[in-house]
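Cross-posting from the chemistry board since nobody answered there.

I work mostly on the small-molecule side, so proteins are not my area. We synthesized copper (II) ion and want a rough idea of how it might sit in this target. Sequence and SMILES are below. Is it possible to get a predicted 3D structure of the two together?
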Amino acid sequence: MALVTAAGASCAGGITAAGGKAATTTVRLGEYFFRPRVVTVHVGQAVRFLNAGRIEHTVADSDATGNIRSRIIRPRPLKRGASQTVVFRRAGVVHYLCTFHPTLMKGIVRVVRG
Ligand SMILES: [Cu+2]
């Protein structure tokens, strides 16, 4: 959580050069979590979802109640050590989950205008 706050503060402080890409945020996933569960990024910034667990997981966006949509994050099975990087191009709140464990593994990406 401290990491997320620090990254947000850097962006707000204008440290990111005009048109420059902020560092990619990494969300680790495993049995049965996304960590950090909530991250905030700027429009155009990427989030890397890294499977730090032992079994396969996926990442797919959903609505707030957990219905899979897969419009922003198209799920593909991630084996241990594999990752999927997603660039968020529209501001808003993106709910996501693991399609294999949708009731256990959920997270949120808050995408804000830079
Ligand atoms: Cu899973």
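Reply from a structural biologist on the board:
Welcome over. Reading the output above for you: Residues 56 and 79 are 5 Å apart (CA to CA). The longest helix spans residues 2-12. Happy to explain the token format if needed.
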